[in-house]
Each structure stands twice: as structure tokens, then as C-alpha cells.
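To: structure subgroup
Subject: Chain for Friday's discussion

All,

I'm putting the inputs and outputs inline so they're searchable in the archive.
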Amino acid sequence: MNRYPLWKYLLILAIVVPGFIYFLPNLYGEDPAIQVSATRTTKVDATTLVQVEQVLKHAGIDVAASQRDDKGIKVRFRDTDAQLKARDTVQRALGDNYTVALNLLPATPAWFGWINANPMYLGLDLRGGVHFLMQVDMVSALKKAEERYVDDLRSALREKKVRYLTVTRLESGGLEVRFRDAAERDKGREVVRRQLPELGLIDSQKDSEYFLLARLTEQSMTEKRKFALDQNIVALRNRVNELGVAEPVIQQQGIDRIVVQLPGVQDTAKAKEILGRTATLEIMLVDEEHDLTAALSGHVPAGSKLYKDRRGRPILLKKQVIYSGDNIVDAAAGFDSQAGGAVAHITLDARGAAINQRITGESVGKRMAVVYIEIKSETRLDAAGKPLLDAEGRQARSRVRVEEVITAPVIREQIGKRFQITGLDSIEEARDLALLLRAGALAAPIEIIEERTIGPSLGAENIQRGFHSTWIGFAAIAVFMIIYYLVFGVTAVLALGINVVLLVALLSLLQATLTLPGMAAIALTVGMAIDAN
């Protein structure tokens, strides 16, 4: 006889059935895939999708499915061997203007998405993720530090009224200060020794000129390398946080490498692009005092440099950097309410705001340029267009400095702590630029030297231990019940055993096709069934 009213059973059914439907996406697992996304200067369109499909077909790589969405192109494969081969093939075909990254895409049927039934998010131990090994360019870190010492040396000598001719950085490393006579050189040596003790000094003379060579000491170079590594770890962690990745692993490996592990990342191409980019801004004044035509013919003024804007038009800028991305404390994407279009709203620190206020106040009516600087890593090719290999058998890569004038507006009024950058192509570019500037500039360029997916080995081990603990607990309960309840205990153990055998048989039947999330769910079901019995 039914002990409960019908509405209670219907209520239980109304809860269990939707819960079971929303549980089903976890049983379908994931497909190995590659994701193709464009860099800042290119686009992914239908033509790119056709090109990728033709490249894979020509290489004899079997494709399970391919699609294009707002994040790029996603191509699914039936196994990881095809995935890895496809990544290398597509990257060679498309070149460095596109980012090709490994990915794991849910194999859930599309109709689950209509009811927002998505697979459960799992950590790195259960789901796996993406592993990046990055190498920090310590040579560039030391070069950047020496370039900063050029201004420090000039300021120190001027403050003490020591007359010098030039202060330059040598291409071979180190700094060179040129004096007219030995007396001024001796004064300069004492000033540098007191104010910049981290520099080692050597005297030299050539003809009638006297030189002071300054190099970073070994202790200073070690400190600079450590600072560059620590600063890059902080910047990478900020960028990963901006991407919204839960429980990432970002840690040092060795003296110049960083390990980044991103569990459950869907848009790995975007993560790879954001993590690998070294972007910053430099603000300079436009050189309107010299002739641009003469500069194009090769007569560039000593204090100026030729650049190109976003449309490839030449523009002459003064070399002196007013302030850089290091002075930016916040950045956000938005729209220009007056002229329309995407903009990046920039907030400066106290030092940058003071400089900006002074320079713009003195330069009303003149033009000020915003220069976007990015260090890109490109594959080195031989004369036949094939990738060169390094000593370790990997594709040899070289770093290219890309400099582009985003905008060069006329200064209409004095600007202080906040201003906006116009001339951006889209709101997506504004968001990317704001993200990079907000996360902080990298102290030195980094290069991704290893990329691979991480299998959920730790989760599989934990699930296996869970099964073992279940069997041990079942055996202990069975022994206790038989000893305490005798015949009734034997009957209860047999009934419980039949239920467990049926569940294990079901698990064994589906184990070949279930992924780790499905195994975890069934293990939980087995435990609940044992507890219920």
C-alpha cells in the first residue's frame, strides 16, 4: 500500500529527472582539438577556415569536425596523435600571424546547450589542462637595465656639475662615458662610485679623449635576473587572473624558466596569445620641426626616429620617451561618446601624471604620439621557406620588435592623470590592450618553449583509491554484520553484494567509453548506493 501521497512522488521525480539530464553532459567527455585565432593585425574568417581544412586534407589528417565562432576556428580530432600533427601542420601553413594552440573541447551534443546543460567544471587533477614552459630572455633584461642606467648616469653627473661629452650604451654590453680630460673623468668616477655602487668602473683613454667604462657587477646582474623573473611571474599571474582561470599554477623552474598550468582552459589560443605577448606603450612628441621628406630620403635628425602608423604612413617622432607603460596603473576598454569607436581609458601613477601634466601644458597645439611596442617571436626559415631547427631539435625562433604608432592627436589642453587612447580598430583590441597594460609590463621578453596538455593522472589515482576504500569498507561492514547478526547478517550482506555487483558490472560495461568525469560520477553513485543499503 502506498504510504505517501502522489504529489510527493511527483516532486521527487521533478527533482531527479532534471538533475539526471543536467548530469548527462559529464558522460560525453572531451575531444582533442586545435584552436586557431588571429593576432592583433589579422582576422579569422570563412576563407581562413577553408584554408585550414584544405591544409589538413592535403596532409592526410582525419578531421572529426570543424567550426568557426567569435573566438576563432576550432577543429576536432579523434585522437591526440592527429591533434599534435595538425597543430604543427596548420602553424607552418598559416605562419606567425595566427596562433594555433592545443585544446580540449566538450563532446556534448549541441542540444544540451539549448537548455544550458554544460559539463561540470573540474580542477586540473580531474579534468587536466594546458601546460606552458616559458623561458625569460635574461639578455634583454640586462640590456633594459643598462638602458635605464644611461639616464641615471647623466642625472648624477649633471647634479654634481661634472662635465662630460656623451653617455652611451655599448652593443657588447656596458656603458661608456666620454670626457674631455682626466680630471673630469676622476670627478665622474667618484660620483658614480658613490651614487651607483652596483656599477663596476674601468678607466680607458683613446687619443685625446678619456673614457669611463661602467658594467654591472656579478651581484647586480644576479639581482636583475631575479627581479626580471619575479616581475614576469607577477605579470603572468595578473594576466591569468584577467582571463578568469581558476586555480592556475604559475611557478619558477630553474633560473630563467616559468611553468604555467591552466586547468580546464577552453580558449587556449587566447591564453597563449595573452601570456606570450610583451606589450607596452611609449609616449613621444611628434617632430614637427624637421622635414619628413628629408627623413624619408635617409637624413633622419639625430634626436628623432621614423615610425609608421596603423595605415603604414610614415611619421617622425622625437626619440625622448615622455613616459611609458611602466607608469600606467589602470586601463579599461570603452567607447568614445563623441567621435565613436573603441578607446582605452588610461590612468597614470603620480610620476607619470606629473610628467604628463607638465609636457602637455608646454605643448598645447603640438602632436603627441602613442607608440605600441610588442616583442614577437617568429619562426626562422631557410632560403626554401622551411623552418630552421636549433641545437635541441626544436624550431628555431627569433625575436622581432614591432613598433606602431596607434594615434598621434593634437594636444588641445593640458592633460593630467587620466586620458584615453583612440585609433583602435575594435573593442576586442581595446580590451586586449587594456588587459596587458593593467596586468603590468613584463620585465623581459618571454618565449613559450614547450606546450602540452596535462592528463588527469592525479584524479585517476584518487578515484582508484576511492574504489579501493569502498571495497575495504564493504568487507569490514560485511564481516561485522555476519558476526553480530548471524543469519540475518548473511542475508543483508548477500543483498548488498548483489547491488554492488550490478553497479560494478555497469561501470565495467561503460568504462571503455566513459571519461574521468563520468567515472567520478559513477564512483559517487556506488558509494551512495552502499550507504543507502
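Points worth raising on Friday:
The radius of gyration is 32 Å.
The chain is about 45% helix and 25% strand.

D.
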